[in-house]
Amino acid sequence: MTKENVNIYDIAKEAGVSIATVSRAMNNPEKLRKETKEKIEKAMKKLSYTPNALAQSLVSKSTRTLGVIIANINNPFYGEMVRAIEDRASDKGYTILLGNTDNKFEEEEKYIDIFLKKQVDGIIFAGGRRISEKYNRHLIKVAENIPVVLTNHILQNKNIYCVLSDEAKGTELLMNYLIEKGHREIAYINGYADSYASIIKKENYLKILSKNSIPIVDELIIDSPSDDMRGGYRACEILLERGKFTALFAANDLMAIGAIRCLTARGYNVPSDIAVAGYDDIDLCNYVSPSLTSVTQNISELGSIAVDIMTDVLECKEAGRLIFIEPKLVVRQSA
Amino acid sequence: MTKENVNIYDIAKEAGVSIATVSRAMNNPEKLRKETKEKIEKAMKKLSYTPNALAQSLVSKSTRTLGVIIANINNPFYGEMVRAIEDRASDKGYTILLGNTDNKFEEEEKYIDIFLKKQVDGIIFAGGRRISEKYNRHLIKVAENIPVVLTNHILQNKNIYCVLSDEAKGTELLMNYLIEKGHREIAYINGYADSYASIIKKENYLKILSKNSIPIVDELIIDSPSDDMRGGYRACEILLERGKFTALFAANDLMAIGAIRCLTARGYNVPSDIAVAGYDDIDLCNYVSPSLTSVTQNISELGSIAVDIMTDVLECKEAGRLIFIEPKLVVRQSA
DNA sequence: ATTTCTAATGTAAGCCCTTTCATAAATAAT
DNA sequence: ATTATTTATGAAAGGGCTTACATTAGAAAT
């Protein structure tokens, strides 16, 4: 753009060697005589040479770039996840290409095409996805070309690998805790009804109630209009109109925080009037007031493992196709 | 990796034309006869061809990729910023390569090298930076090669463009508001002491106090150990030990939220005992309790404008070198 | 039908590297 | 010193694309 770029020929000329030798100086320095290597290094420094990764990748067939597709980076859950992914990837010499989809089909499709064009080595789909043929087709399409890693989602297929927290167990942990605390009217705010995470949680919410012979009250179960604070706030409003409850379980922390806000705005005390618990254990749980009881997904671990799997696959090492992470209950003030 | 890639030669063969014609079908379709175009499109579909962006970029000298360097994506301020950047970039056909530096010099250097190698078309340094020769050298180095856009930071130099909120004015707005409300003992939690944003804010905090003939109490001014909630919490603890105050101004929302948490934990009521205000107006301000009075930076606007400037420069259009955004006071419950 | 001009297509060079294979230089062995 | 062996370097092809220039086909003009 601004400066005419110096390339490998310029270095070769300056150092008085062939371009092959310059290339070796970068990739197999041990194959060169010390003095030639030094000549080349001096030339590189003098002309401030930066190798062109496009050309390198074109021949090496590897870009050391990973695509990351998420719903929305501006959501603490995904923020933590992407941060973890980026950190680990960077440690291993990979760079991250980012795409926000807002869970929109067309956006996802667009990013997949772009990433494939740009020859990423693999794509990580980070965070809950819809369960549908349509969405799965995306994953399978990508997996025909490059490895795919999913976090918080299951799809068994060639070239697709999954890491996820055991949400059935996590839900069980949390529900048992609430019930032990004496709650029998436990409302539930569900996330997107067709996401894997939501389905599992709802299933286990119902299961634990039954196990404890607690009647299931349909009015206390609601699908949130959106899986964020706003959605949680609104869902809670509706629940309050519908019936009475002493505890509230939201499928993610953001919705739980929204619900708390709704409750305090209406004069309820959390937890003495109504206990509230979330899920995911995002950082924010520690900083809202009251601090939020939640179940940890170990978001960072999930992210790092996703990268580890990806790089293992890329380096043709063994990699688990389906890895579960143990969830843990984190009791704070809200419940 | 998994599938042997089909290239432009395969398409040319399948369609019975030359590769130049295939290339034209993608880039200048209007130059082809309708039927040839159709033949080629059919071939592309049949073989499910994806052009190789590496090769394209190698010749076109443009990757349609922007590097974004930030401190930490897992921080709502940067999260919102990056989201805005990504959105606008995506609308304009650019993809984002992401790098978290945690404000570390070496990390920043590393990402700059990687981005330059990968031939990004430009780099956006999003969010406050340290003011120092050392850090500025980074920016200038990059700007020698490709355009640089800074948000919330000023550096006048060739090929460097800045967008920022007028923080002097924002601080004035806020301080005047607090003083009007009758506060005369206003504590101040500063961010990183050597960042542009911090310097301006502190300067204006002092200025407004003087203007209103309010004595400056050194004990009520503190540099936060870190510019997040934890830092704000800790800074507030120290302030409470040091002296009395009826209002607290933190240089960013996260620190303000940490401070509120510290105050409520110690039994103070916010705002009746101590009023608290932050800066930046991140989404979260609406969802903490009490909701946080702040000054909006219009983070999203900042991000979009950063991209607009970048693309204008890349397309050789006129672009402002220094753009200020008007801040606005957003009064909520905390002050 | 022949020539002229335009539009469509092809040929080949070039973008910047890596890597195989061949060659030259240095070292070891005789 | 001479040959065999190892090591360091160079020449050239190839990776997948774009584009300037050359060529051919088709339309318009005579």
Automatic annotation (TrEMBL), chains A, B:
Domain of life of the source: Bacteria
Name used for this protein in its record: Transcriptional regulator, LacI family
Gene Ontology MF terms: DNA-binding transcription factor activity; transcription cis-regulatory region binding
Organism (species): Caloramator quimbayensis
Name of a matching Pfam family: Peripla_BP_3
Keywords of this entry: DNA-binding, Repressor, Transcription, Transcription regulation
Domain HTH lacI-type: 6-60
